[in-house]
What does this fold into?
Amino acid sequence: MNRSISKAVVIGSGIMGSGIAAQLANVGISCTLLDIVPAELTEAEKAKGLSLSDTAVRNRLASTAITGLVKRKPAPLYDPEFAARIRPGNLEDDLHLIEDADWVIEVVVENLAVKQELLAKIEQHWKPGVLVSTNTSGISIEAMSAGRSLEFRRHFMGTHFFNPPRYMKLLEIIPGENTDPAHVARLREVAERALGKTVVIAKDTPNFIANRIGTYGLLVTLREMLQQGYTVEEVDAVTGPAMGRPKSATFRTLDLVGLDTFLHVADNVRENVQDAAEIEVFTVPEPLQKMVKQGWLGEKSGQGFYRKL
Ligand code: NAD
It folds into this structure.
């Protein structure tokens, strides 16, 4: 079976899920964007007399992400049909929509147990022919799909988009041991032809290629420069625009990625390497861990190394 990809279900409407859905919608692939059901009502929802069973509340996370995307829409790069191609939904009620999809992309928090549980739920509605991929930053594809059927694993692989998905050309595709090369070729073609990506096929090693190098660079910079008493602004000045890399200043990048996500990504390498020197390098310095504990997650929470005004 080798049908074209015109319908996607993106699960997780955070920084990456919403950005990936936007890129797909913009090239004409219709998307359903799912997220978990919010645990509590907001004050505004209470004032309107809504309850947790109301669709608007149940779809709040995905709807908010879509509203944000439409507001950011910079014409003429996005076509006018863009907004109509992304529909919000929630995981509890709408996961069955994957039955009718060509491609399901898992983009939830960087946590092995959460992703494994979600894949098990996805498989309950999955049919052969539907491609399933994960946007994990570096969790093992094999570990994530352990327990799933062989037929499902033939259709499963990593598709690692970079942040922000619309501007970053690189896409790592990570086949698992059982991924069918024909399915890899099918996603590669969509990525290259429709999404304009440069695809690199990566091995299923901790953090694949780009994040193994990237996390290493960020942690070394963070530790060394702060130990020597430089400020966030000074480090960013020399690691960003002044080096001819306008978007890659160290602390701006960490705030953009999300400090919680960065912590999970670094932990993933630390927990999966044996070499003592590597374990030390991939141990996140205490101050950054504290920031995450107190809810300073970067741009998404409004406060990271910088405060969003
Ligand atoms: P995020 O924190 O912005 O969003 C995560 C989403 O997952 C949220 O919408 C949240 O509601 C949802 N979620 C939380 N718990 C859940 C659960 N139990 N079940 C289902 N959904 C749940 O994170 P993000 O930055 O969008 O990262 C998502 C994935 O993409 C991660 O695997 C991350 O490693 C990867 N990634 C992130 C970046 C980046 O720069 N942030 C880059 C590449 C890949």
User: Anything to note?
Assistant: The mean pLDDT is 93.
